[in-house]
Amino acid sequence: MSTSLSPSDLQSILDFTTALARSAGELILQGSEAIRASGSVDEKKNSVDLVTEYDVRVEELVKRELSAEYPTFKFIGEESYAAGSRQVLTDEPTFCVDPIDGTTNFVHGFPHVAISIGLIAQQHPVLGVIYNPFLEQLYTAAKGLGAFLAQGARPPVRLPLAKPPIAFTFASTYRDRMGL
């Protein structure tokens, strides 16, 4: 299989992963409600990094849907990786997923939580979708297509929302030219 993805391919994948992120967001909201109602949480070995059954459920949902739509693409998920599944990163298109980015916030009822779906091709990031269902913030980006923020029912706006300050622009240009 060719590992090259055209802008049209990326737009199609972006559309699919955006809808998938919204579906996963619904499951995250259900999980948050269930956790608040029950008060139960399982802890990982590292007490700062909490995991719940919803981390696994959201990852399983995302993996199942991605595998059905893109059966030749590889998959790296935070929960499956932590459980010992060590997919080797190759040039093949690979989805990289954090099912509940901000698990500690999720468990404690803070609304700063997101589903994060990335696509890596030829070992370079080419697409990303981050959706916070609590705040209804959807960040999307794809190589050559731009980056956008959609909030609630408002139309997406191109990022950055504000022009960076001149000092930042100069520093970035200097670092780029110096190869830093």
UniProtKB/TrEMBL annotation:
Cofactor: Mg(2+)
Keywords: Hydrolase, Magnesium, Metal-binding
GO MF annotation, one: inositol monophosphate 1-phosphatase activity
Binding site for Mg(2+): 78, 98, 100-101
PANTHER family the UniProt entry points to: INOSITOL MONOPHOSPHATASE, INOSITOL-1-MONOPHOSPHATASE-RELATED
Family: Belongs to the inositol monophosphatase superfamily.
Name assigned to this protein: Protein qutG
